[in-house]
Each structure stands twice: as structure tokens, then as C-alpha cells.
Design goal:
43% of the residues lie in helices and 17% in strands. The protein has 320 residues and is α/β, with parallel strands linked by helices. The chain has a seven-stranded parallel β-sheet with strand order 3-2-1-4-5-6-11, sandwiched between helices. It is globular and about 55 Å long.
Length: 320
């Protein structure tokens, strides 16, 4: 079987590519190596995949429709895992048109390429817990209303779900969306909280703690996420269209996460307490019952097990 993974040099894309290769799949990766964060990290991830049996890659932007069409014609994948996107809640406030380009136009290109492929592939795509906006009911369930996003990033992810539903309805394509909840682990993105915290702690700077630390997040270890992705990709009994939460089903206090990270790094943190940032939400908490029933998804990694893995990688990668 062949899987086309967009954003393969990204954090989740890298781990997913490695696991599908381990399972004997042929993996074709696409990435444009954008400079939203340090491109060296993406190049280093890509270098670990290069040369592995069954792996090939192209440097390509999903906004390049003609280039994308050529890849689909040459490869004819059985499954497309679309992880390419412009991430970041806060970044979307100052750079809205980047999200319109990549997350809307780019995703439409993916849908069109799937639709017109000689062998129409199964499409599994990344959505986000951010679609729940300021929902107060916990845990978040897929049946909850998600019509009140609080960031443009969240709005584009909700739009992706609607676009995919339309294509499934019109063209009988199978499209499955996964709402990711605060994924972390080795080879983590530098713009995310744990990386920012680790960098500050190891350089004896105060860490910026928003909403005075009164925040809850469903931290999910990347190995658990990839296990869920694999189960969805390989499942043969899913509906034509559906959306699933994929998280840890445990909402952690931000200050507890900071404590575990500091202990893992062997440092005492300094904290700068700040108000809530625009676009942020107070809490995320995934109900994973639907995904469990559909494919047997069951995360197993606690933050006390997962954060030390991240901390060890962070120190080694950055030579700290």
C-alpha cells in the first residue's frame, strides 16, 4: 500500500512517516519547508527518513496545484494523509492571508487532486481541537456545536471539515478528519509551549505563563497520536465522511505540566505570569469514546512518562 503524506517534515508528519515505513508501507512525502519555524529542524527530520526503503519525497507546496497533480498522476496513492497546514493560533492574528492560502486553497487542491485521481484515495486530514472555540462543556465531543471559533486558524480548520464533507457528499470520496489535541514529544516544534518553556528554563529566563497559569490542556504524546492515525488509515469500516477527536482524554493543569518539565530538565523554573492571549482558550479536553469505538484507539502515555522523553531529546538536540 502507498500513502502520500503532506507536511512529512513537520512534527507529526515525520513521526507518521517513520511509523508507516516501519509497517511496510510505501511512503511519498511532500513538504515545502516553509520558514514559519527553524527550517533546520525540518531538514533534520527529513534527513532521518531519506534513504529508508520505501520512502521518496518531493519539495512541493500544496498550493502548487499543477505540481500536486503531477505527484498524484505519478504515484496513485491508496491513502492521502494531509498534515500540511499553516499552524499557530497567535500567528494567525497577524498573518491572516497565510492561513487563507495554505489552509483553504491548499486543502482545496488536495481535495481536487483526490477527486480527479484515476484511483480515488482515502483522505485522512488534520483538523484541530481549536474548532471547539470557547466551548465550556467538558470533555469536548464531536457532536458539540463548533460554530464559534476564536481564531482564524480555528476557522480554517472548521472550513476544512466542511469542505471535506462537501466532497464526500458530491463525489463519494472517503474523507476522515482528526481533531488533534496538544500533541508533544521528541522532534517537537519550537513554537509550542513545551519547547518555549524548555528553552527559557535552560537559559535561566522566566517562562511566560498565560492566564496566570490557570489553563488546562489535553497533552497527547505523539506516539499515541500516530497509533491513532495508523488505526484510522488502516480501518476498512469507517463511514464515507466522519470527524474524530484524537487526544489523551485527560486535561492537565498547565502548572503541573511546567513542574514535570522542570523536574525532567533538572532545573527550577522562573515564571512571568501574564493575562490570557487573544485567540487562546481556557481549556481543551477530548472525549475519545467515538474513536475508541471506531478503531480501538486507547492512548497510554501520561505526561510523567512522555515529558521526560521530550526533555531528553530537547537537551540532546540542542546540546544543552
Amino acid at each position: 500500500m502507498e500513502i502520500l503524506i503532506t507536511g512529512y517534515a513537520g512534527f507529526i508528519g515525520f513521526h507518521a512517516s517513520r511509523e508507516f515505513l516501519r509497517r511496510g508501507w510505501k511512503v511519498v512525502g511532500i513538504d515545502n519547508f516553509c520558514d514559519y519555524y527553524n527550517v533546520k529542524l525540518k531538514r533534520d527530520r527529513a534527513a532521518m527518513l531519506k534513504g529508508q526503503r520505501g520512502f521518496s519525497a518531493r519539495e512541493l507546496d500544496i498550493c502548487d496545484l499543477a505540481g500536486l497533480q503531477n505527484v498524484f498522476a505519478e504515484e496513485s496513492p491508496d491513502v492521502v494523509l494531509n498534515l500540511a497546514a499553516q499552524p499557530g493560533v497567535r500567528y494567525s492574528i497577524d498573518h491572516p492571508f497565510v492561513y487563507q492560502k495554505t489552509n483553504l486553497e491548499g486543502f482545496l487542491n488536495i481535495l481536487e487532486c483526490c477527486r480527479h485521481a484515476a484511483k480515488v484515495p482515502k483522505l485522512v486530514f488534520a483538523s484541530s481541537s481549536s474548532v471547539y472555540g470557547g466551548n465550556k462543556k467538558m470533555p469536548f465531543e464531536e457532536s458539540d456545536q463548533v460554530d464559534t471559533p476564536v481564531s482564524l486558524y480555528a476557522a480554517t480548520k472548521k472550513a476544512n471539515e466542511l469542505m471535506a464533507h462537501t466532497y464526500s457528499h458530491l463525489y463519494k470520496m472517503q474523507t476522515i478528519g482528526l481533531r488533534f489535541f496538544t500533541v508533544y514529544g521528541a522532534w517537537y516544534r519550537p513554537d509550542m509551549a513545551l519547547s518555549l518553556f524548555a528553552d527559557a528554563m535552560l537559559h535561566d529566563r522566566p517562562i511566560k505563563v498565560f492566564n496566570n497559569g490557570d489553563m488546562l490542556r489535553d497533552f497527547t504524546f505523539v506516539d499515541d497520536i500516530v497509533n491513532g492515525i495508523v488505526r484510522v488509515v488502516e480501518a476498512g469500516n469507517l463511514p464515507l465522511y466522519d470527524v474524530f477527536n484524537i487526544g489523551n482524554h485527560k486535561s492537565e493543569k498547565l502548572l503541573d505540566v511546567i513542574t514535570v518539565l522542570a523536574e525532567s530538565l533538572g532545573v527550577k523554573p522562573k515564571m512571568e505570569m501574564l493575562p490570557m492571549q487573544p485567540g487562546d482558550v481556557y481549556a481543551t479536553y477530548a472525549s475519545i469514546e467515538k474513536l475508541n469505538k471506531a478503531v480501538g484507539y486507547e492512548p497510554t502515555t501520561t505526561i510523567k512518562d512522555g515529558i521526560p522523553v521530550f526533555a531528553k531529546w530537547y537537551r540532546e538536540y540542542h546540546g544543552l
